[in-house]
Structures are given as structure tokens and as C-alpha cells.
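haha ok so turns out i had the wrong file open the whole time. this is the CORRECT one, sorry everyone. sequence first:
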Amino acid sequence: MSDLVLPNINKILVIRNDGIGDLLNSTPAITLLRNNYPRAEICVLTQPLNAPVLTGNPHINRILIFDRDGAHREVRDRIRFYGDLRREEFDVAIALRTASWSNFVTLLSGARYRLGRYHKRLKRTLTHRWHGKYEKGYVHEVDRNLELIRLICAGEGNRELVFNLLDQEVSFAKRQLMDWRVHSNDFLVCLHPGGSSFDKQWPSENFAHIADWLVSEFNAKILILQGPNEAHLSRNVKKLMTSPSISHAPESIRNLAALMKHCNLVICNDSGPMHIAAALDVPMVAIFGPTDHVAWKPLSEKAAIVRRDMPCWPCSAHKCKIGWECTKKLPLNFVRDEIARRVGGHLGTSAEKMSASVV
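then structure:
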């Protein structure tokens, strides 16, 4: 056994309570943990919205929910939560989210070994600290997570995201598509015009133009999917289209994923669903704005990213002084040309017939 692997570890807490993409890009690190601690109970602490992406992950024993805006909004509820966490008697607590709160929770957990990154407050609460600093444009988030986990693990690990759909979820999505008169030999394209913030969202009229072009050129059927608080985006795209389309608000992240799995192509912004499509290896064209595309590109050989190179990149998107031109003025032909390359000179009846070149 490697000297890095800790002895007598029975229970591990992994803290990752931020975005869907953040959590999915942590799954390779969790896989490496499982490989090094095969008998330990691995628990992941996350938030309610993201927890379903871990369903069916064979490397995780339990999912713990911290609901900052709901069940744990009041101080007394948070104190009770932290007390319950301490009574779990974790041996290891890992702050995969780089945040002072995560470091604080590792301490509150009472774990003997506490991992995290050094460049946040409360770093002295950690027993194992990663001291490096990442510059934009060089390292993917998956690799950052693996590097942290390797403080207590042997081996390099693999970069494969883990998102396992259940058979009944796939079947339910298939029935939904049949109800919408989408057949297995149709060329089905999913549009997801949403994103976690305004700066990441390509204009609705551009999505509508691309959708009409796909219908005209490739006889595509268009499925517009939306997340919470994104109904206006789907509505705008549908209204601006001249072709018919299906607009749907999935019942859950799991249902969104199962519907995407049936699609021949996904066109989306930089978002959580982008990472879900990557984990499911669905052919995809992803639109990037100010985000570090090297760190957050979808990890799939069937994914391509489209972006506009700007002299102000890398940037601080929320302080943009030129109206997020990287996203809002990304030319239509950039996206259209990439889609044409992915589709190639023919249309298949399944995702496997799409182009699969490396991003």
C-alpha cells in the first residue's frame, strides 16, 4: 500500500455543495477515493438541486443534504445539522469545493484528517493542504479535483464523469418522446438555452435561428428543455422560431438527463446540463462566453465548444464593461459551422453516427 493512503479509514465525507457541473466534475475524484478506500463508507454533502446527479453512482454510499435556503435557513437548524454531522464520526473530511465554509465544515465534522486548498480562509483547520495556485486557461476542474484527492490516494485516477441513468428513467423518457410523436429514426436535437447567469446565455433569437436552420437543412425535430426559472428563455426561443418545436420543463434533473440521452445532438450554453450531456456522452455543441473554457469544457470526445476569442480574456465576467460581447455577439456562423461539422455529410438515426472528434 502507498504511504499516501491513510490507515484505518472507515468513513469519508466529501463536501461539494455548489453547482451541478462542479459536482459532476468531482465524480472522477470520488472514484479514485473508492479505489483507494474500498471498504470505507463515502458520504457526499451537497445541496438539494444537485443531489440527484449522484443517484446510481456505485462509489457513493450516502448523500447528505445541506439546504441553506430551506431546511437549514435558521441558525438553530444549522447548529442541529452540524451536531448531527459531528455525530457521524467521520475519519476524513474533504473540502472539494474551494470555499471557507467548506473548510469550516471539515473542522466541525470532527474528522481526524481534513483536506482542502490552502488559499482560502480557515485553511489552518486542514491537516492536508494543497498549496498550489491555478492560472486560468491551463487546468481542467476534473484534474484539479484529482490532484487534491491524490494527497491521500495512490494512482492517477481516470477523468471519466459518472452519471448513471436507471432503466426506468430511460424508458419513461422514451414514452414521453413517443407521446410527442418523436420516433427512433428522427433526427432529434435538444436545445438548452439556459445557464446559471446572464453572461453565459447566448441570445434567444440565435437559438431560434439555429433551430429553424436545423429543421430546414436536416429535417430535425427540436426539443427545447428548461431548468428552474428558465421558462421565459424556452418561451422566447419557441416564439421566435418559424418551425414547430417541443418545449418541456423536465420533472427533475434525472428526467432532463434521460431525455438528452435520446437526442442525436445537444446545443447548449455553458451550464450544468452541458456537463450532464458530457457525462452521458451525447454529441454536443456548447457555447462558451467569459468562463474559463479550459477548466470547464465538457469532458467528452463527442463534444465541441464554440467561443469568441477576446483580448480581455481571462476576465471577471460580473464586472464586464463591454456587455459580455463574447457571449452576446458570438456570431451565428461560428455555431452553425460547428454543427455542420458534427453532423457531417449525412444524418444517422442514433448518436453513434454523429462525429466524435476530440475538442
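The domain at 11-149 is CATH 3.40.50.2000 (Rossmann fold).
again sry for the mixup
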